[in-house]
Amino acid sequence: MALNRIEKRAHPRRAYFHLIKYILNPDTLDKIFRGFTVNISSSGLRLYVFNNLLNEGQEIIVISSLTGFQSSQKGTIRWINKLYDNTYEIGLEFT
Question: The domain 14-94 belongs to what CATH superfamily?
């Protein structure tokens, strides 16, 4: 799990729990999914999602009204941890 990970962050993260929406395919803007942020920094965020449709290296679009956030922000998935049957922890780097 990410709790055992050695912190090597370029930008400090702060706890931030917020409902977000995200789109899997930035080219077609197809189906919208929901997740929750756990923490955020100027370079990325950690979130929980409830499906196994994501892969490391995949680009998604996050749609949110987070403080200091654009209405939508592209990001690349850097890591994925399975927490439970349908719950995944995702590390997203903004692009």
Answer: predicted glycosyltransferase like domains (2.40.10.220)
